[in-house]
Design goal:
Chain lengths: 335, 335
DNA sequence: TTGTAAGCGTTATCAA
DNA sequence: TTGATAACGCTTACAA
C-alpha cells in the first residue's frame, strides 16, 4: 500500500495525499478528512525507506556496545533507546564482543543504513574503524571509553578517581597487600582504573608489587585466572580490587571454590554495580557507574549535534563507592 | 558519495559501477579492478536505503521485548542479534515496558522501517497491535508468550511443566503450605506458571489456599508487595514459588529486611536463572529457561520464513530445574 | 488549494 | 561488456 493507492482511490494526486499527512494545514479541511479517514481505514503506513531516501536523512541512531548482556551496557542501552524513541528515533543496536573486526562490520552496516548518528563504546582507542568513522563524518558520541576521534562528543566516567577512591578505602581499612585485576591497557577504562589504583598506593608510600597487578580482558574467565595466580603467590594479597563486574564474577567463583572467605580471608571490591552485587553474601562493595545517566546524556549530546551544534563536548561523570560488606578492616583477619 | 560520483571519476556509467560491486562476474576484469580500487580508496559505502527502496525488501528484522535490562530478554536478544547478523541482517530492538501502547508504537515504527520480519514478546495475548500485525502480513515469530496471531511462528517454553516440576520438588521436600507469586493472568506465561503450580498441588490432593496465590505483574515491586502480604498471613507459607526473576528479586529484598532466613524459615524457588541467582547465599534454586536457544531458534524460524516457508511452526522448549540451596526439607525447620 | 514533475541512490531491463 | 532509462515511494518546488 502506497500513497499512490490512496490517491487513486480518492481521485487525488499523490502530493495532496502526502501533504495531508505531513503538512495538514496546507490542504483543505474536507480533503484532509477524506484522506485521513481512508488512511486510517486501510491501515496505510508511510514507507520510511522512501521518505529517508528523499530527505537524505534517517531518523535512526546506531549504537555499538561490546556486550548487550553485560548489565552495564544493557542499562546504558535502555536509557539511549528511551531518549531516542522519545525523539522519534529508532535505535539500531550492534554487539561487537570486544572484537575490532565485528566493530568495523557494525560500523559499515550503520553507514550503509545511513543512521543519523552513532553512539559507540569502542574496543580500540585508535582503531582503524574510528578513522573510518571520522572520514564518514557522522555525528558520534563515544561512551565508556575515550577515543582518538577528535570530532566526537564523549560521555565518560572518571575512572581514575573512582578506582583511587576504592583503593584508598582499602588502604583506610588497613590493607597494604592490595592486588588489582585490571582491564586491557589498550582501553582507557583499563588504563585509568589501573592508574587510580597506582596513585592511591603511591600517595601512601606503598611500593607496588608487580605480581599484584594482573591484567585481564574484562571477561569472566580472565578474572578467574588472574585470581588463581594471585592466590598461588607466596605472599597473597589481603585485598583485591577488580576492574569490572564480569571479571569480579570470575573471581568470586574461584574464591568460593577455594573456600576463601570474603571478607575474612580476602577483601573484595569491584568496579560496576551489577544487580547481583547486592545479593551476594556478603553484599559486594563496588564502584557504581551511573549507567542510566551515561545513556541519557549520550543520547542528548547526539540530538544536540543533530540539531546543529558543531563544537565537540566531553562530559565526565562521577562514579561512587557503595560500601557494602565485602571489605573488612585488616585486623579482622587475626580474629 | 554515491555511485554517480564513482562513475564520473572513472568515466563509466552508474550501471557498470553498480554491477562491478554486486555482480562482479558481469563486468570485464580491468574495469572491475578500476572500480574496486577507487571504491576502496574513497571509502564509498553503498546506500542501503536506496537499495532497499529499489529492491522492495530490507535486510533488517525487528525485535520487541518488554525489558532489555531483564537478563532473560538480553540473553534472548543477544542470540537473535548474533544469528541475524550472521545472515547479514540488522536487528532493530524496541523496548515496550509491558505497555501495550508502546508496543503498538514500536510495531508501527517497524512497519514504516519495512523490516523483513518481527520477533515479538507481546504483553497482550489478543492485543489490537497483533491484529495490525496480521493485517500487515509480515513474517512474525512470537517468543516467550503465546499470541492469538494464527499465522505467527512461535518459540515458547513449557511453562506449565516447568512450574509443576518446581512445585513437585517443594512437595517432595515435605512442604504443604506452598504459596506462589504468579504473573498477570493476561499472559500465557502468567497463566501457565500458575496452572503448573495448581496441578502439582491437586495431584497430591492438597487443597489450594486462595491467600497463597498472589498475582503480581512480573516486576520487582509487585514481588515485594506480594511477599509482604504472604508474610502477614496468620498461617504463612513455608515455601514460595515465584513466577519470574524480577519478582524474586523483590521477594528476596523483603525477606532479608524481615530477617526471614532462606531456606530455614522459607524455602524459595523462582522461575528464570538470572546471573545473580547463583551468587545468592544460599544460591537460588530456579527453573532455568534456555534463553540462548529461544533466541537462536526464533531467529532461525524467521529466516526460514523469509526463505519461503509458509506453514506456521511452533516450538516448545523445555525448562529445567536447577537445584541449588534455597529450598530445604520441611523437617529442617524444626531443628 | 491542488496537481505536475523532478529527484533522492540504487538495481534491473533492454538495447547497443 | 557497457550504457541509457525506468522504476522503487516519497517530498517538494513550481505551476495552475
Amino acid at each position: 500500500m502506497t500513497l499512490l493507492d490512496i490517491a487513486r482511490q480518492l481521485g487525488l494526486s499523490v502530493s495532496t495525499v502526502s501533504r495531508a499527512l505531513t503538512r495538514p494545514d496546507m490542504v483543505a479541511a474536507p480533503t484532509r478528512e477524506r484522506v485521513l479517514e481512508l488512511v486510517e481505514r486501510q491501515g496505510y503506513q508511510p514507507n520510511a525507506i522512501a521518505r529517508s531516501l528523499q530527505k537524505g536523512v534517517t531518523r535512526s541512531v546506531g549504537l555499538i556496545v561490546s556486550d548487550i548482556q553485560n548489565p552495564f551496557y544493557s542499562g546504558v542501552t535502555k536509557a539511549i533507546e528511551r531518549v531516542a524513541s522519545s525523539n522519534g528515533y529508532t535505535t539500531v543496536i550492534c554487539n561487537a564482543d570486544e572484537d575490532l573486526t565485528k566493530e568495523a562490520n557494525a560500523l559499515r552496516l550503520l553507514a550503509q543504513l545511513q543512521v543519523a548518528g552513532v553512539i559507540y563504546a569502542s574496543s580500540g582507542y585508535d582503531a582503524e574503524s574510528l578513522r573510518e568513522l571520522g572520514r564518514w563524518g557522522v555525528p558520534t558520541v563515544a561512551i565508556d571509553r575515550a577515543t582518538s576521534l577528535q570530532t566526537a562528543d564523549s560521555v565518560l566516567v572518571d575512572n581514575l578517581r573512582g578506582s583511587r577512591e576504592a583503593t584508598e578505602y582499602l588502604l583506610d581499612l588497613g590493607h597494604t597487600r592490595i592486588a588489582t585485576i585490571a582491564g586491557p591497557t589498550s582501553l582507557t577504562t583499563g588504563r585509568d582504573r589501573l592508574e587510580g589504583y597506582r596513585q592511591a598506593l603511591l600517595d601512601r608510600g606503598i611500593h607496588e608489587i608487580p605480581a599484584y597487578v594482573q591484567i585481564g580482558d574484562f571477561k569472566e574467565a580472565s578474572g578467574r585466572e588472574s585470581a588463581e595466580r594471585l592466590l598461588s603467590l607466596q605472599v597473597p594479597p589481603t585485598a583485591l580490587f577488580v576492574a569490572n563486574n564480569e571479571m569480579a564474577a570470575g573471581v568470586i567463583d574461584l574464591l568460593r571454590e577455594r573456600r576463601v572467605r570474603i571478607p575474612g580471608d580476602m577483601s573484595l571490591l569491584s568496579f560496576d554495580d551489577a544487580r547481583w552485587a547486592r545479593y551476594l553474601e556478603p553484599p559486594l562493595t563496588v564502584v557504581a557507574q551511573p549507567t542510566e545517566e551515561i545513556g541519557s546524556i549520550a543520547a542528548q549530546l547526539l540530538f544536540e549535534r543533530l540539531a546543529g551544534r558543531t563544537a565537540p563536548r566531553a562530559r565526565v561523570l562521577r562514579s561512587h563507592l557503595i560500601i557494602r560488606g565485602s571489605c573488612a578492616a585488616l585486623a579482622a583477619r587475626q580474629e
